[in-house]
């Protein structure tokens, strides 16, 4: 019997706008048909092993390093975005001028 949580996650992936993959291999066993895996998603892949990133699924952002340190850095920068500091203003201006919605 399949775990309902796993099934729910599998149902959400094709509809995702962004996927943050931390320390996971994206092999064909994980993704199924790689060509149809999260077709509309921007994929951010964080892994300590550089050879696993972009191996089977192309990413828009690659982070090579220890997951704990990288996630702390990510949370720090996201908190600055939410606080509307300089980083948030720079990001907001770039996003607005990019035309991407």
Q: What labels would you give this structure?
A:
single chain; 101 residues; alpha/beta; three-stranded parallel sheet; 4 helices
Helix-strand layout with pairing:
Layout: H1 4-12, E1 18-22, H2 28-31, E2 42-47, E3 61-64, H3 67-83, H4 86-98
Parallel strand pairs: 1-2, 2-3
Question: Could you describe the 3D structure shown?
Answer:
Helix 3 (67-83) crosses helix 4 (86-98). The model has no long low-confidence stretch (mean pLDDT 80). A three-stranded parallel beta sheet has the order 1-2-3, with no helix packed on it. The chain has helices spanning 4-12, 28-31, 67-83, 86-98; strands spanning 18-22, 42-47, 61-64. Helix content is 43%, strand content 15%. It is globular and about 40 Å long. It has 101 residues and is an alpha/beta fold.
Please outline what is shown here:
43% of the residues lie in helices and 15% in strands.
Mean pLDDT: 80
Largest beta sheet, briefly? 3 strands, parallel
Percent of residues in beta strands?
5-15%
Distance between the termini: 39 Å
The spatial strand order of the largest sheet comes to 1-2-3
Radius of gyration: 16 Å
Structural class: alpha/beta
What are the low-pLDDT stretches, counting only 5+ consecutive residues below 50?
none
Helices and strands, in N-to-C order? HEHEEHH
Proportion in helices: 40-55%
Overall number of strands: 3
- Contiguous helical run count: 4
What general form does the structure show?
globular
